[in-house]
DNA sequence: GTTCTAGAAC
DNA sequence: GTTCTAGAAC
């Protein structure tokens, strides 16, 4: 029980979300990615979240007698395990069989993509490397080219992994992020009739263990977006959100790596930046006002895009497809 | 990461 | 009176 609710909530009853075969830059391994054929409705966060929450609760120790001491101990334990949830997913053997489709979007020999539990936009996914992490030359291998500890966050991948390993890890993540982006664009077209921007990047200071890459649509309309620091943490112009393309430039020229890692650690203050719209930079007195404002942006963007499509038969020129 | 809640802002 | 934020607790 609890998971019987269908995650499918869109008009197309059974259109499988299949990854495109067009990932030109992909290594051979990513072609063996397993695509879930289950859920469409990539952007139905609320329902999905309810599902999973129910499941988590069911597996906890809620049936024990209630008592202050016990409940304090229990909740603090489950609280800290939250920090390790991603690591649990990333180390699950055979994710397709062992992780529910309401959680898992994609899996390949060295990476998985999951639904963010508290989405900060209409589409919000996390991509992470699996562990053990097989060498890309031999995706079937059960040995890992790096330790679990070295995959704790971006900083540890940059500082603790060899040049080769960090390149393989980041490439695997980038390739899967590209597949996720394609799936999102498909879904955007199906549900709204147009495509909009998607951001791909890391948080400078993540709050859960195991390195994860955010793939998030730039509408920023999501049930999980409640605080100023949520919004600031995804602004590509502030510095707390680090686009993957920037990290890839870093590893091409790793001469300043220590400096860059130090800058990551100092990024906390950026979360306290005054609340302004990430699209037009207008000051927002509070979160409810921002939310209303973002809805307006989205509505206007959609209207403009649909008008443009009606007139020209397509949404945009190819030179805009650069992210 | 989220939830809870006291006190500020309205 | 209600809404909202930010910090403590989990």
UniProtKB/TrEMBL annotation:
The keyword Nucleus applies. A motif (Histidine triad motif) lies at residues 210-214. GO terms for molecular function: DNA 5'-adenosine monophosphate hydrolase activity; double-stranded RNA binding; metal ion binding; mismatched DNA binding; single-strand break-containing DNA binding; single-stranded DNA binding. One of its GO terms (biological process) is single strand break repair. Residues 91-226 form the HIT domain. Keywords: DNA-binding, Hydrolase, Metal-binding, Nucleus, Zinc. GO terms for cellular component: nucleus. Residues 1-17, 27-39 have a biased composition (Polar residues). It comes from the Eukaryota. Pfam families: DcpS_C, zf-C2HE. PROSITE patterns: HIT_2 (PS51084), ZINC_FINGER_C2H2_1 (PS00028). Residues 46-66 have a biased composition (Basic and acidic residues). Residues 1-78 are annotated as: Disordered. PANTHER family: APRATAXIN (PTHR12486:SF4), APRATAXIN-RELATED (PTHR12486). This is Aprataxin.
């Amino acid at each position: 029980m609890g998971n019987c609710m269908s995650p499918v909530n869109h008009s197309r009853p059974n259109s499988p979300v299949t990854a495109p075969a067009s990932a030109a830059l992909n290594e051979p391994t990513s072609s063996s990615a397993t695509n879930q054929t289950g859920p469409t409705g990539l952007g139905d966060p609320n329902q999905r979240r309810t599902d999973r929450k129910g499941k988590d609760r069911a597996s906890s120790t809620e049936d024990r007698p209630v008592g202050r001491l016990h409940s304090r101990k229990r909740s603090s334990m489950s609280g800290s395990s939250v920090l390790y949830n991603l690591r649990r997913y990333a180390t699950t053997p055979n994710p397709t069989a062992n992780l529910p489709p309401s959680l898992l979007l994609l899996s390949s020999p060295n990476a998985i993509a999951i639904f963010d539990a508290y989405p900060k936009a209409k589409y919000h996914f996390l991509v992470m490397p699996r562990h053990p992490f097989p060498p890309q030359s031999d995706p079937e291998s059960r040995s890992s080219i790096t330790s679990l500890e070295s995959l704790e966050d971006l900083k540890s991948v940059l500082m603790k992994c060899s040049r080769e390993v960090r390149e393989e890890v980041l490439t695997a993540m980038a390739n899967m992020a590209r597949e996720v982006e394609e799936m999102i664009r498909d879904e955007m077209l199906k549900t709204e009739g147009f495509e909009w921007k998607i951001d791909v990047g890391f948080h400078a200071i993540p709050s859960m263990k195991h390195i994860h890459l955010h793939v998030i649509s730039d509408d920023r309309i999501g049930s999980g977006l409640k605080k100023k620091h949520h919004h600031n943490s995804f602004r590509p112009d502030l510095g707390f959100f680090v686009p993957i393309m920037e990290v890839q430039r870093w590893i091409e020229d790793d001469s300043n790596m220590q400096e860059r890692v130090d800058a990551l650690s100092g990024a906390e203050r950026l979360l306290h930046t005054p609340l302004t719209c990430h699209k037009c930079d207008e000051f927002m007195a509070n979160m409810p006002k921002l939310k209303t404002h973002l809805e307006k942006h989205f509505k206007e963007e959609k209207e403009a895009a649909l008008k443009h499509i009606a007139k020209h038969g397509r949404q945009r020129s190819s030179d805009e497809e650069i992210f």
